Amino acid sequence: MRNAVGREIPDALLTNGREVYQGRNHMDGRYLQKAAPKTRRYEKPQESKVVESIAQALRDCGAKSGMTFSFHHHLRDGDYVVNMVMQTAIEELGLKELTIAATSLGAAHDPIADYIEAGKVVGIQTSGIRGRMGEVVSAGKLKTPAVIRSHGGRPRAIEGGEVHIDIAFIAAPTSDCVGNCRGIGGKSNCGSLGYAMTDAKYADHVVVITDCLVDFPNMPASVEAIDVDAVVVVDSIGNPQKIASAAARISQNPRDLMMAENVAKVIASTPYFKDGFSFQTGVGGPSLAANLFLEQYMDERKIRMGWAIGGICGPMVELLKKGKVGKVIDVQDFDLDGVNSIHQTPGHFEMSASQYANPANKGAFVNKLDFVVLAALEIDTGFNVNVLTGSDGILRGAPGGHPDAAAGSKCCIIVTPLIRGRMATVCEHVVTVTTPGDCVDVLVTDYGIAVNPLRPDLIACLDSAGIPHVTIEELKEKAYSLVGRPDDLEWEDQVVAILEARDGTILDVVRKIKPFTLD
Amino acid sequence: MIPRPRPERFRLRRTMMFMNAQKPGLIKDAYIYGCDSIMLDLEDAVAENQKDAARFSLYHALRSIDYGDTEVVVRINGLDTPHWQEDVRVCVAGGADGIRIAKCESAQDVHTVEHAVEQAEREFGVEPGRTLLMAALESPKGILNAYEICSASERMFGVAISGGDFRKCMQTTPQRDGVDMLFARGQMLLAARAAGIQCFDTVFTDLDDQEGFEAEVRQNKAMGFDGKSLINPKQIRFVHQVFAPTQKEVIQAEKILLAYREQSAAGVGVFTVDGKMIDVAFIPGAERTLRLARACGMYEGDLV
Q1: Apex CA B290: angle with CA B287 and CA B296, to 5°?
Q2: What are the residues facing A245 on neighbouring strands?
Q3: In degrees to the nearest 10, what's the CA dihedral of B114, B118, B120, B121?
Q4: DSSP sequence for A274-293
Q5: What is the least distance, in Å, from the CA of A101 to any CA of chain B?
Q6: Cβ distance A267 to A92 under 8 Å?
Q7: What is the mean pLDDT of each run of 10 residues along chain A (519 residues)?
Q8: Residue of A nearest to B32 (CA)
Q9: Which domains does chain A have, with CATH numbers?
């Protein structure tokens, strides 16, 4: 069946009431039956929940083959916990047919590719998938199609029972002996633990893994002891160098700066740019640099940003400390400036992934966003964005909060260079639709700006501010005139990944790529 | 092949951005930053044993990249090198808008290059007189001969001082107040204005010293330069900002031109606008202001 972004979705996937994507806000007003976990009662007071090993915790929680284990990705590329737990479960306990439900997976998790090839891991649910894992899944070696969800789509699926977590593993920079966890105060700090919060509330069992046991009570806790079954103390939960970079620096690349300046110009031309406006930006070169130019416009107009959300790093913390933004609400930290500021700088708060971006709750933060500035691997003439698959059709990215912030915000700006190497970023059809075009408003490239024709109001804003813009077709033609028109990818029938829209409908599928042969 | 329109001898040249002609990544789309002219360098930026490679890259860039309205000027090697004749052939064959003569010291230098350009235009079937010239003054002798250089050819559109070499000759270094080159800049400006061509200031090389850069650009504008050479795209915006006319100047220029049309149609030569005496001598200045205003997105009328 063809969906609203023109993608053909195999009927075989449309079971159990699953629908194809039918446009923005399609599910609005429907009721959701939340799924409650089955949890164990600990009536008898426990002095401590600390157990001697991961293996012991797994046994205590009744781990068996066929279960779903969940993980969060706050330790980013420095994470040791996913590999540690899966190795114990598979190699020590001999478990098989396991499903990993992670908030995201990255290069740190290359060893999991072996378990997929060996058939021990049979299901992957994640936002991001990269490195060797992306390659083996793309090669069709995972027994069931991987399910890719946005950061808001995941808590929706968990709360609605589409994903049932048997055991949630919480990698915690600090924990006390009964499992009150925080992302700060230890030796592998990550700041916010926002992505772990929904897991802890909806999993049958919760195991905290920490490398820094602190005195009870570890307050204010991000994950609470009332939800925790066991605490395991290990030597190290991750590599601090890779968890949070020293400081996200604003790019000095003139191309990034030029695009960032144009992003700020577009923002300043809209009626939403007024005192108290709200903002989210990524940490990519031009997205982050937009902060710099936005600040100049704020000073010029003598206005302040009301609040900012999303992944947080130094430049936003700076604005908070200078009093130029009222509040920062943080689901993840990208650098040490962010990590060291959360709960410390007045106005810097932590939030859960559901609170951040879940489309099925009663109002996530993204729904109140004025502006979001996002990157893209590809964007097509329908303004559909791909941030998941490479130009070779291999899984190597993450929707993250992209589709959520795009859908919720009043003005979603995509900023990307027109070409990368020999690849056209602006193209006729993206390889995979990860954010539908009806949620994307403006595209800023180094060769020009295009506004989605669905937004004549924004076109008028740019015109009256004298900001030149062209059609996205013109940008695509420019890109193709520079690097040539790529041949279409060739696919086999097998679906290797299902790309869920944030509302749970199917936005796209990724198939197994046909091996490329030279003529 | 991308055909380029015949270059205009006098056009807006607030910013000329230098870049190494050997770096395809730089020159492939340098026009996106919005400078008025780009200066593709075959001289100092290119190592002695890479001159051929740079010419190759330059030729193909000129033939295959659509630079649109951005002027494309090439800095060729000095006349004391074995490279410059071949440089000229490549510029003309590729269709560069102009050639910057490095280390120019006399009218004879201009004539020498002009002669080579004429030959190349014949050789490659390029419209005679199409290729423009500008001179870089880099030595005391060049500054002293500024007027003969500026008035040496109909192809000359402008003259620029090259601070690095000039300061070395003068045994000085960049000074905050510009006193190191005050006389040279002044002499060159006088010569350029006397010859009726444009005049450009040298590059500011310390990218970390934004304050110093801004002070120099303001001084350039105050001295009457037409524009400035740049080494980084991030310098463009500020120069355009400083060289833009004020809102007041735009309104005044518009009033002068409107009044002039009206009065001259009625046979009046001298009249007043807002209490100031105006005659035909004010017209070129007013037209220049409006052209600049249009380029800066401040004027959309049809008086110029």
Answers
A1: 145
A2: A335
A3: 130
A4: STTEEEEE-SSHHHHHHHHH
A5: 42
A6: no
A7: 95 93 95 95 96 98 98 96 98 97 95 97 96 95 97 97 97 98 96 96 98 97 98 96 79 91 97 98 87 94 96 93 97 94 96 97 97 96 97 93 97 96 94 97 98 98 95 97 92 96 97 84
A8: A447
A9: 48-240 (3.40.1080.10), 246-488 (3.40.1080.10)
Q: Which residue of B has its CA nearest to A478?
A: B66
The tokens for B231 are: 């080494």
Say yes or no for a CB contact (<8 Å) between B32 and A446: yes
Q: A380 exposed, middle or buried (CB, 10 Å; 0-12, 13-18, 19+)?
A: buried
Asked if this assembly's ipTM is beyond 0.90, the reply is no
What global pTM score does this model have? 0.91
For position A190, what pLDDT does the model report?
Answer: 96
The residue written with tokens 């977590």 in the block is A165
A446: which chain B residues are within 8 Å (Cβ-Cβ)? 29, 32
Quote the tokens at residue A119: 């058939």
Q: Which residue has the tokens 């620096």?
A: A249
pLDDT band at B303 (very low <50, low <70, confident <90, very high): confident
Q: Where would I find the H helices in chain B?
A: 24-27, 51-64, 84-94, 107-123, 140-144, 146-150, 163-169, 182-195, 210-223, 236-243, 247-265, 283-295
Q: Return d(Cα B304, Cα B290) in angstroms, integer.
A: 7
The single residue listed with the structure tokens 């027994």 is A143
The residue count for chain B: 304
Average pLDDT taken over every residue of chain A = 95
Helix and strand counts by DSSP (H, E) for chain B: 12, 10
The reported pLDDT for the residue numbered B9 is: 92
